[in-house]
Amino acid sequence: xxxxxxxxxPEKFQAPRGVHDILPEEHAYFTVIKKVVRHxxxxxxxxxxxxxxxxxxxxxxxxxxxxTDIVEKELYTFATKKDGDEYALRPEGTAGxxxxxxxxxxxxxxxxxxxxxxxxxxxxxxxQKGRYRQFHQFxxxxxxxxxxxxxxxIIQLAATIHEDLGIADKLKLxxxxxxxxxxxxxxxxxxxxxxxxxxxxxxxxxVRRLAENPLRILDCKNExxxxxxxxxxxxxxxxxxxxxxxxxxxxxLLDAVDIKYTENPQLVRGLDYYARTVxxxxxxxxxxxxxxxxxxxxxGLVEQLGGTATAACGYAGGVERxxxxxxxxxxxxxxxxxxxxxxxxxxxxxKKVALQILTELRGRGVHALGALGKASMKDQLGKADKFGVKxxxxxxxxxxREGKIILRDMASGVQEVIPIGKAVEKVIKKIGEKNLDRYxxxxxxxxxxxxxxxxxxxxRD
Length: 461
Ligand code: AMP
Known about the structure:
There is one protein chain. By secondary structure, the protein is an alpha+beta fold. Helix content is 38%, strand content 19%. It folds into two domains: 24-180 and 240-332, BirA Bifunctional Protein, domain 2 (2-Layer Sandwich), CATH 3.30.930; 341-435, Rossmann fold (3-Layer(aba) Sandwich), CATH 3.40.50. It contains 17 helices and 16 strands. Helix 12 links the parallel strand 12 (341-345) and strand 13 (368-370). Helix 1 (24-43) runs antiparallel to helix 5 and helix 5 (148-164) runs parallel beside helix 9 (241-256). The longest helix is centred in the N-terminal third of the chain and has 20 residues, at 24-43. The chain starts with 23 loop residues before the first helix and ends with a helix. Residues 92, 123, 125, 130-132, 135, 137, 270, 291-294, 316, 318, 320-321 line the site of adenosine monophosphate.
């Protein structure tokens, strides 16, 4: 009997449940969304910010709210072994950005400070279509201005991005005001009075919400809770004059820029920091209510996180949900990875020349792929076909000796022999100047030539 131990196959790993790889095809969508967001944000004077993917856990318990689903059920937390500090992967962007605003004294900058981001976030949510445990959001924050014009402008920015991405007609803007803490407290008391005694018709979560934050019952998706919520007291009866006026002005400004909305008194949003305006863009195309993004005012958050009282407003859109909607709407993202030409070679001398040609082609903005391994010519051309390239340059030792190269039209199979020195120009002509990838990092970066104080001393010495 053989004494050899049976070698077990190494375990095959899968991505953890609820998280997903972004494969190249999907990246085409990510790229176009990032470009559009960056472009529209810059046009409106926003600057980009990135905060860490993890923060002290307390930032979120204090910022987002201890009793929100996001903090209570969905936070990924961990403690460091050495000092036992508790951290959390960020579930949303606003708390971290407000922390950064306070930490870096951004209140000293001209106000409001307008920031945007495109980042991954983490929530231990129940995975399903459009709901992941790591997902991406792009978002805008305007910190330091209470005017309703800011609310309208942020909504307009989001709406413009939806237009750009070809999904605007699938989305409905839902808007509401949840008032300031004062009118909200009044409202909470009225809701509590209304729901007490009706607990049997509420879901378990809402029974708990009734004690902690009855406003959240209005946001529940459970059918029985929704029916009950329809007859609940209306916020419009308790809202204070200032909050009413703010909301009215937001709506009038939206009218002025022709943005359609549905007033939805049931909309409260799941995060505690909101005040006054709240809004969401809903995709109702397949019957299911599905929010692709939302936001609102968070006038109390800066103070709550240790800064001075500062009004603010923001929005976050879900990238994965927007991609799904773009795909449902048959919007094709441009494929910028298309290979223009394949360079095939046989023999070491040919490989050297091929490498030189590839370098020159790439430098001129041609997407050029080379087979630098030892595959046969047939295999190399087969690979060129698989990449769907229109042209191939073919080079063997004989061609190198004669200073020639073969240019092959892959579709027709027609080949022409041209001097090696003319190959790059010829390829560019075939592809067309306008199709070149013109980005030139060396042309964009400049060296700072101003003299620094310490250098000035050296010059004088
Ligand atoms: P929220 O601030 O929680 O409303 O999130 C804003 C947007 O982010 C939502 O409208 C979704 O588009 C997206 N989003 C939130 N949670 C998830 C998730 N678990 N998976 C994918 N997208 C999400």
